[in-house]
Amino acid sequence: MAVESWISPEETPALAEAATAMIEDRLSRFSKPERDAYWASIRKAYNTPYNPPASKRAAKVAVPVIEIPVSDLPDVALVAAAMTPEMQANAAAA
């Protein structure tokens, strides 16, 4: 579907500059950080659906699976000996 516009491509920069000047004039009552926050929100609103920012998450690294044969696992007595007295008391009570 074709988009109709009353603005020619040649007029766009001048109209954008005029609109920005009018908005800046209205925003002059606010502090510089407040004006910057306004413009940041406008940029985010216009860019988010069309140009999502690059992901800041690191790429997931494949974690190798370590397989241990059952024969290499420690004996139950060794595990029990390594338990703290509190753990042994809790195991006996259960």
Helix count equals: 4
Number of strands: 0
Q: What string gives the helices and strands in order?
A: HHHH
Strand content: under 5%
The overall pLDDT average reads 81
Poorly predicted parts? none
Query: Whole-number radius of gyration?
Result: 33 Å
What structural category arises from helix and sheet content? Answer: mainly alpha
End-to-end Cα distance, whole Å, is 73 Å
Gross morphology:
elongated
Main β-sheet: number of strands, strand sense, barrel status? none
Helicity level: 40-55%
Question: If you had to describe this structure to a student in words, what would you say it looks like?
Answer:
The structure is a single chain. The chain has 4 helices and no strands. The chain is mainly α. It has a domain at 12-47. 51% of the residues lie in helices and 0% in strands. The protein has helices at 12-27, 32-47, 76-82, 85-93. The chain is elongated and about 85 Å long. 0% of the residues are buried.
What attributes characterize this protein structure?
single chain; 4 helices; mainly alpha
Topology, pairings included?
Elements: H1 12-27, H2 32-47, H3 76-82, H4 85-93
Brief write-up:
The protein has a domain of 36 residues.
